[in-house]
Amino acid sequence: MSDVGGAPEPGQSTPARPPALAETGFDDLLREVLNRVHGVLDEQARWQLLLDAVVTMAADLSLDGLLSRIVRIAGDLAGARYAALGVLGDGPDRRLRLFVTHGATEEQIREIGDLPTGHGLLGLIIDRPEPLRLHDIAEHAASYGFPANHPPMRSFLGVPVRIRDKVFGNLYLTEKVGGGDFTLQDEEIVVALAAAAGVALENARLHEEAALRQRWLAATAEIAALLSAAPAGPESLQLVVDRARAVSGADLAWIVAGADVESLELQVVSGAKADLVAMSEISLESSLAGHVVRAGVAITVEDMALDPRAVDVTTLLGWPAVGPAIVVPLRSSEAMEGALALGWTRERLSGYQSLDPTLPASFAEQATLALQVARGREDQQRLALFEDRDRIGRDLHDLVIQRLFAIGLSLESASPLADRPELRTRLSAAVDDLDATIKDIRRSIFALSALDEATDVQAEVTRIVDRAATTLTFTPSLRFEGPVRTRITTQVVPDVLAVLGESLSNAARHSGASAVDVLLSAVDDVRLVVRDDGRGVPQDVTESGLSNMRQRAERLGGRCTITSTPGGGTTVEWSVPLG
Predict the structure, then answer these.
(1) 0.70 surpassed by pTM
(2) Given 192, 208, 224, which residue is the final one in a domain?
């Protein structure tokens, strides 16, 4: 028997020894195992990072902050030097309306210039929303190349971000750190991040919508509270339009008032200078507001300059140019009041796209109801005041005037019994004074029916005439013909008052008159006549004020004639058509 470990017997083969590189192969195997262990650990760390990211994203309800966080996390998870999130717009072309970046410095972004809008390779993922990995961006057929001063980028990973079944945007990752390409594992973890990001973005969007609705509700409550203490006039409309522009974020807002398309008038504006005269001269019967008033439903347009139904009020009035706009009716269940328009510049299209038209429509409806309540409250106050003044007027007429009239008759009947001429003269003068007193009381009774408002032309004319007595040293006579309060429109009232004030001022300063007669008539037309017995208008007088009176009449389709003779007084006759 031979030892196991002895030399081989003759005829037997020598057993083969292990190769000399056996130990080296073991080292390579061990190194590979360690690399894979480290890879597994790295992969676990990345998934742990993803889990932490999902938790932190769920706590962020600020949409802008959330977008930046998603981009940064995606770059860290995939090991990308540059990352970006392109948010899709709501338009039919589905291009990018927002581009959030990470990795590029502010100087690089400034040198690149305009950020991409979704063409070329970026547009490919928009049109086909599915993950895409590339070894070299430049080799792809859809690549447009990079603009000047753009940092070099080769490897690429693109993943869509969905909110439910709708694509919200796309994640774009480039330049794998350390060189090489993005791996399948990179794609899987970014896809998982995109799914979690979609849920977080939906929560943030719902939170912002709820906050926006809360702002509109708060604005509605604020308007209702303000109008409860304010008169239902242009000031109230200004409150409505200012608040609507502030809450909506619009660049321009205006209100067209009128119960039907024939009476529409542009009354107030927010965000631009108001020229009331020019605004009143614009025809709005075939405008967007006219369509809204006629149909009673809101209208949205992408560009007012391209819509054939729109009247380009911005160009006519020198306002900032408006692209997209929303026009909603000012309507309640009882009546139509007009339309509220909100406009954005073309550079701020996203503000228009993010606004739900039902919010300003609901705001406008509640504001209209508040205006009608305020107007009804004013009507009740006016009715109570008229009733009170009517009672005073009846008492003055039935008691005071009748007694004065009786005293005057008694004095007049006693005059023939007086023996002395001086006594008869005094009695006659007393009777004349009583007649003048009765006329003054009747005039006061007539004035009691007028409310102290600037829109009440009869009250304003009376106030101007009474005020002129301080400079004339006597009270001008005043007479009204026809229903001036109801037939002279609010558009004509300011001109009537301006012409009256100028005429009385001229009489006080230049005429040296001892008597001035004022007549305001609303029978066949609106006619204002101011006549004095002064020295007349000099030949070389500068006609600045007189020229303004003529221009006011001509602008309203009327005329102004000034008749004057040296020493024979001056007559100003100003007339315009009714309505």
Answers:
(1) no
(2) 208
